Amino acid sequence: MGRSGHACSVLGSLLLLLLLLGPAAAQKGSTWKTLSGDAPAVIAKGGFSGLFPDSSDPAYSFAVSNQDSAQWCDVRLTKDGVGICLPDIKMDNCTTISDLFPKGKKTYRVNGVSTTGWFSVDYNSIDLTNVTLLRAILSRTNRFDGSFTLVQVEVALSQYKAPAWLNVQHDSFYSQFNLSMRSYILSMSKQYTVDYISSPEVSFLKSLVGRVGRKTKLVFRFLDEGLVEPSTNQTYGSMLKNLSSVKTFASGILVPKHYIWPVTADNYLQPSTSVVDDAHKAGLEIYAADFANDFALSYNYSYDPLAEYLRFIDNGAFCVDGLLTDFPITPLEAIGCFSNLNNTKADHGAPLVISHNGASGDYPDCTDLAYQKAVVDGADVIDCDVQVTKDGIPICMSSIDLMDVTTVASSQFASQAGVISDIKAVAGVYTFNLTWEDIANNLKPMISNPFGQIGLSRNPRNRNAGKFMRLSDFLAFAKGKDLSGIMITVEHASFMAEKLGFGVVDAVIKAVDDSGYSKQSAQKVMIQSTNSSTLVKFKQLAFQSMCTC
């Protein structure tokens, strides 16, 4: 499939999802803690910029195909005063300008900082006809680089029928070139519907008060706390302490998300600040910025961007009035499908949610904490990979090799490592090399890190948290929980029987029977194995009546 064919396929799939999400969001009742009581707004930064180049035609087309999302345009002015949507004041960071005009590099002062690059103020709009957009974040796909030309603000306002948000980041910069951003924005607001106008410059927003329509919201954009606002010479951090003064020229504020949920140096959430409540008390709406599914998230979110959005809109204490994001589908899904749910009642319907070694993304595999978190998170079924110890005790362990999931490599048992070709080709210390007491009293669990080689670690604060579980412990824990069933995985049964003289199938059946599962029907017992002979043996031993193999 060629580039155009692939793009059509992607566009079609995303459009369908957006259309499906729209009605879901609209069906929500007035249960929101926003200033207005309405559902929070979703603002698509440069359109669907997480997939397409920021501010490109397809990015806007997809973002606005759902009327619940607003389109964000970072307004830049050309030499002849034409507005274009571009995410960076340095055009070389997001376009092919340097290829077309290799001698166009200039150095200007931007908010007092010497900045070198290619700037829109050096080119007439006609000069930029053949300039195309690039992804601004290099970790994203390059498939659409160079495929789309620049979008003028007037085109964005007239063509994409959705709420419009114009952001003016550097008004004072353009005034150096006798370009009036104020006049341009006022002209656009008279010709087209502009729902939001934001800027980090107080003087610019004050110049618009009373000159834009009543329905146009002026939003003061806060930058990092230590930066200085150019027209007042105050830091944004100090201005945050006087929101009543902001109310005199704006109806809302836009803040980096860390203003609301600060993050520690080791990437964990701190307690939330009072900024949302402070803004609402001052009569200001508050919008949170810097959301993207592929940014490094706090470990508290377990690499789940949906969980991050819900933290800002459905935490029981407050709700922001809007979310500025590169991936508008995800917050729309959070708002329309996953917020304001009744989490006190579990519905174990189809399809079942089955844990993988418990909540192994948050805690070490098959530990008490992993299983507890899986239940809290709403799993229908929790699972146990059964291994056997030297003294014949069935335990829950995701690998038969303790080197994979415990701290055995740094223990006194490391010298017992050896190669068993029937299991794996490299040396390991196996569960059957140690007694249950050896494991429980001398080793610690170790969280799995399947993507550790590319720097994506799981929950480092809890890398060794939790206690190991025997199969009997697992069964006792599960029996008292609101679950539809349990899954027991058995591998290497033939090896254990032939080389160790241990009948793991018999041991599992006895443990399940001793725990009382054979005398109840509330929870189903499922047996899993990649070896069909193991499953056959379970059935031959009359286990079929109380399990699914």
Automatic annotation (TrEMBL):
Domain GP-PDE positions: 40-335, 351-549
Keyword Hydrolase belongs to the record: yes
KW Signal (keyword) present: yes
Catalytic activity field: a sn-glycero-3-phosphodiester + H2O = an alcohol + sn-glycerol 3-phosphate + H(+)
PROSITE patterns assigned: GP_PDE
Signal peptide positions (record): 1-26
Enzyme class: hydrolase
Keyword vocabulary terms for this entry: Glycerol metabolism, Glycoprotein, Hydrolase, Signal
Record-listed E.C. numbers: 3.1.4.46
Pfam family, one: GDPD
GO BP, sorted A to Z: glycerol metabolic process; lipid metabolic process
One of the record's GO molecular function terms: glycerophosphodiester phosphodiesterase activity
Protein name: glycerophosphodiester phosphodiesterase
